[in-house]
Amino acid sequence: MKDEADDTTSAPPAALHRVDGPADDPTGELVAIVPAGGAGTRLWPLSRRSRPKFLLDLVGSGRTLLQATVDRLLPLTGDGGVYVVTGVAHAEAVAGQLPELPVANLLAEPSPRDSMAAIALAAAVVEARLGPRVVASFAADHVVPDADRFRDCVRTAVLAARAGYVTTVGIEATGPSTAFGYIERGEELAAVPGAFGVRRFVEKPDAETAAGYLATGRYSWNAGMFVVRTDVLLGHLARLHPELAAGVREIAAAWDTAGRDDVLGRVWPTLERIAIDHAIAEPVAAQGGVAVVPGTFGWDDVGDVDALAGLLSAAGQDDAAAPVVLASSEPGASSGEPGDGAGAPIVVIDSPGALVAPGPDAPAIAVVGLPGVAVVRTGDAILVLSRDAAQDVKGVVDRLRELGRDDLV
Amino acid sequence: MKDEADDTTSAPPAALHRVDGPADDPTGELVAIVPAGGAGTRLWPLSRRSRPKFLLDLVGSGRTLLQATVDRLLPLTGDGGVYVVTGVAHAEAVAGQLPELPVANLLAEPSPRDSMAAIALAAAVVEARLGPRVVASFAADHVVPDADRFRDCVRTAVLAARAGYVTTVGIEATGPSTAFGYIERGEELAAVPGAFGVRRFVEKPDAETAAGYLATGRYSWNAGMFVVRTDVLLGHLARLHPELAAGVREIAAAWDTAGRDDVLGRVWPTLERIAIDHAIAEPVAAQGGVAVVPGTFGWDDVGDVDALAGLLSAAGQDDAAAPVVLASSEPGASSGEPGDGAGAPIVVIDSPGALVAPGPDAPAIAVVGLPGVAVVRTGDAILVLSRDAAQDVKGVVDRLRELGRDDLV
């Protein structure tokens, strides 16, 4: 075992198990994996444990983030090519939002075991059903305005994945953000133009470090997007976290049998909790086995209300001083148009950069003399905050927990 | 007529019709008049046309401003000595809030004709019923924390009123406010220690002028408080606005007869619309007929949300940085205590000087990173504003009217 593991450290295990698609479409047999987890605490009160961010239509597009993610991926995979992994608590809501998803493609985790277990399980189930495939994993709660350019990047990433790389799509940094981890790229791959070797992944930096990264021109943001062959992924996992790999293989083997629940109940709680970045991406990058395809397609992880306001403002409005109104954050919720005289009016005075999310059955909402304020209303809560303090919303959730008001978080 | 009018310009018509009370109580036969009008637009959404400021418990004392005003006056007048003048639209609500008020003491105006008509009508009805009396008029929607000192001032004012002066109670200015008119006093009256002649009334000044007023030590704020004999008041009115005086006399003569509604319907709409300040106080002051009793009793007209927050903050809280929570603005409304874990929680982070008025059946309310913000909620509206911009709330009401949403104003 040790010798085999050492063998893989020097170079990517390219073409050991070649996965071919149609010659004219490098994603011909691509399977997408969408881990749908995380509450989005900093988007309280829109997001809750019981109503996480991915189930919300945060940008008022008429599709939730999860639905938009699947919409964006289906042209790459074809029908039936998207798998969603989510917690049992949200399985019904996910199925309800994705009627086009085959029931067998919805994998419900009994409990959260972090991203490595979720993605590895899906990869193992896919491989057990279909044989080795290139899989591509994308979070369910990110926003990608330019889906065409996104898909072009993924197609390039699939070529690198076929060649044996754990391939990530790196987001071209538009500023020295301290909210994201960074990916340092090396040389362009000779065999896959547009894909680069990855030197290392780095955690969220301070502002000065981030500015230094940008100045080199070699860094992109890590959005947690991974494109990789199932056999390559599970091979690395077997080498680096053998018990975790064995566990997901055992569960996957039983998945489509009557023994699924038994095996899942016995093995799943024992699986190591670790993120795919730490389990695979970082160590394999150090060994030269990771590639990155840099891309610019307006990606945003909508991490807080300030990001949401910026996204909505950039998307729709000519007048930068005009308030941003989030029409609805829940499918089917009703709210008034600003100034239409019929629904609940929204009046904003002397408050450039204001965001108003009126919520369902909204009352009249007026904002006066507060530049950069966000007013976010749901049926049971009102949050009023400075967009500059958007990260501090976590303190509200903490305080509500202290007060014993878990019903509100 | 002209000669008579000229005669009165040289000196106050003192003691022409002396009104005596018990020797040991200068307010023995005082009658109080409480004009209850005005919507309080700048306190939207708490105050509305249909729910004006005086009907609200703005300070969370358990009594509305109207009730607190009557409570404050009854020790001066004795039972049955308070009259309230209000619009027909609010007569039922006023009667409901003041079960101790004799039905005959509630005077309903068919339409608003400004303060001179309202006060003169009440004075004329009082005189028709009781003969000449000293009457004292106080707005229904002001806050007076120190009622004992207030009543001491009024007792002194009654002495000056008996002597024939139109007497006002001037509020000792605590700062160069530009929100109030000012009263300039002259010499102390020899016969009434504590009362001074009034040189003039001045309209709301700019800040520089206000600071100059304060520096002289001769100016107090005009709170629209007037103490005067009915015969003196109606005499001045007959001289200065004879048609208005004749009109209210005619209505008052018919008030307690079957002909009231006919006369009211015919005469009231013809009465001149003018404020008592312009009709009586200013011209009579120019003629030497007005006195002022300066007083310090924490008066506030609660003109806007900033004033309300300041008042609540001064009244109850040791920690200046702690948020001010307005428990309830309507009798019977329920709302949560901050942090009690049972009602709706209020969480305020990094927002010193914040005011939160959660309103009835409140949701959770969180405020983050907004010093000096006010969040005012009612059943059908939410206002979020900088306390510095509290005067601009009028713009919201204007905009709602433009939108045809008179139901919200």
UniProtKB/TrEMBL annotation, chains A, B:
InterPro entries noted in UniProt: GMPP_N (IPR049577), ManC/GMP-like_b-helix (IPR054566), Mannose-6P_isomerase_type2 (IPR051161), NTP_transferase_dom (IPR005835), Nucleotide-diphossugar_trans (IPR029044)
UniProt domain MannoseP isomerase/GMP-like beta-helix: residue ranges: 347-400
Keywords: Isomerase, Nucleotidyltransferase, Transferase
Tree of life domain: Bacteria
Annotated transmembrane regions: none
Pfam family, one: ManC_GMP_beta-helix
Domain spans labelled Nucleotidyl transferase: 32-309
Keyword Oxidoreductase: no
Gene3D superfamilies cross-referenced by the UniProt entry: Spore Coat Polysaccharide Biosynthesis Protein SpsA, Chain A
Single Gene Ontology BP annotation: GDP-mannose biosynthetic process
Example GO molecular function: isomerase activity
Region feature Disordered, mapped onto this chain: 1-26
Protein name, per record: Mannose-1-phosphate guanylyltransferase (GDP) /mannose-6-phosphate isomerase type 2
Species of provenance: Salana multivorans
Organism phylogeny: Bacteria, Bacillati, Actinomycetota, Actinomycetes, Micrococcales
